[in-house]
């Protein structure tokens, strides 16, 4: 397997940079902002889906796996983006959506047997609530997500071959790897038996109807490894990170075939030192953890952990051992917005998808047109305003990205004062005060850490957040 990237920057293409003035971000826009990523110090970018799509789930409903949606550009523009990224030493990861297509994908009409059908629904529920089955003619098709996203049958060899072609298509064009969507849904019980009632908590937040079920048959089937092996076979040693919505103790077989797995326990942990520590402890026991604390589904750092804790969260994200994924805008502590009215996303996720704030102008430098979602507060918060400010969140994040290359491989959680999370990375010690009040320093003789979150080496503070509570 290839060397994992160190820090990956998640680009949500609709909202990163618009180059053609239609109010929606595009590939030419992303290309024009690559220097920001280089300056920030990340070494890879992951593009949420850019394939043709009716956009019922903003690109996670793919209607053609081997083209670019016209709203984002075309294949020639994609090639230019790859070339420019590589010229700057950036790797580019695509988002592969293997578990379902759009209902408008020609495969759904031409190869209905590549999908999962039943004569009558079982009790499986969709990720967005309600039955996971939709009537079509005299049968029902499975949709683990929206009804516009029918599930593919990964036990069908023809489908597997078609998907392997897709994987090779983008690798041949220079893509360096994939973030693989919803992979724990790849294989389900072939007999489509009901999910039994839950007898213990799932370990990650679920909607109310899903939490009542053990979810042992509707996902994560025992033979999943066979399908993962086919994905790996097509990808050679390209970097693969799985979106596996399972507690880390259940990461196998995903961690056997992929280079990294998103650590959702930490992302979902309430801001409490004991719980944060527990999530880190559980996850670092497993191989291949990649850290993520915000994204286009679950919200932004300031809303997940409180604006006053966004810097502390970034400090944790960027100093744990393993690849870190940072969501666009989190480097400036961008907050959430009201979303669309009426909402674009039925599951309520518009709020964390507002456009990137590059400068203090009303459209934030994002577009010359009317932005598809309004900017949140560019006059308060933007890349331009924070770039040269030594006390800004952006400066802190950039410093941490530079510093993490010096952090040693040995990792050890340390005993610390109440409310403090502290750990050692080789010669460095990271300490985060999860309370909003001064706390005794985690290590004797280090009084400066009473009032800031920071990284120490030999008792010297080499990076710090500024006063705790600063947003
Ligand atoms: C996870 C993606 O991150 C999310 O945005 C999408 O709705 C589901 N998978 C379904 O593809």
Molecular structure report:
The protein has 471 residues and is α/β, with parallel strands linked by helices. The chain contains 14 helices and 16 strands. The strands form 3 sheets. Strands 1-2-3-7-8-9-10-11 form an 8-stranded parallel beta barrel. A 5-stranded antiparallel beta sheet has the order 12-13-14-15-16. Helix 5 (157-172) runs parallel beside helix 7. The longest helix has 16 residues, at 157-172. The protein is globular, with a radius of gyration of 22 Å. The protein starts with 6 loop residues before the first strand and ends with a strand. The model has no long low-confidence stretch (mean pLDDT 95). It binds 1-deoxynojirimycin (NOJ). 1-deoxynojirimycin binds at residues 57, 60, 97, 145, 181-182, 243, 296-297.
Which consecutive residue ranges, at least 5 long each, have pLDDT under 50? Answer: none
Which structural class do the helices and strands define? alpha/beta
**First-last Cα distance:** 39 Å
Q: Give the number of DSSP strands.
A: 16
> What's the gyration radius in Å?
22 Å
Kindly report the spatial arrangement of strands forming the biggest sheet. Answer: 1-2-3-7-8-9-10-11
With helices defined by DSSP (H or I, 4 residues minimum), what is the helix count? Answer: 14
Order of helices and strands: EHHEHEHEEEHEHHEHEHHEHHEHHEEEEE
The gross shape turns out to be: globular
Mean pLDDT: 95
Percent in strands: 15-25%
Major β-sheet profile: 8 strands, parallel, barrel
Q: Which ligands does the model contain, each kind named once?
A: 1-deoxynojirimycin
Helix content: 10-25%
